[in-house]
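Sequence only, no structure available. Ideas?
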Amino acid sequence: MIYEISTDPGRAINFAPGAAEEILQNVRTLLATTKYTVPLDRALGIDAAFLDRAAPDAMARLRVVISEEIARSEPRAKVRVVEFKKREDEAGGGFFYPILQVEINEK
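Reply:
I predicted one. Tokens follow.
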């Protein structure tokens, strides 16, 4: 089954999730974690090296980084599509966030 995931900050953490919800929650956590910020696992998270690049270049690099990190850290999820949505309410309008379509391996 394919699920859509975004980095919506309004989602609460479920401390007793079902199997699929646990995987989706793990993917959301990976998307919200910047690499080198987790003390005992510095490699966990998304590398922010793309941050100051032009938007098309940053989005292309981020697609690869997200796919690789999810494959490494949460192998039960497989990324199908990475799209970006621009937040119009942010100052300057240069903020975009990823929206993923993820398939869960339920084996």
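The longest strand covers residues 77-87.
Hope that gets you unstuck.
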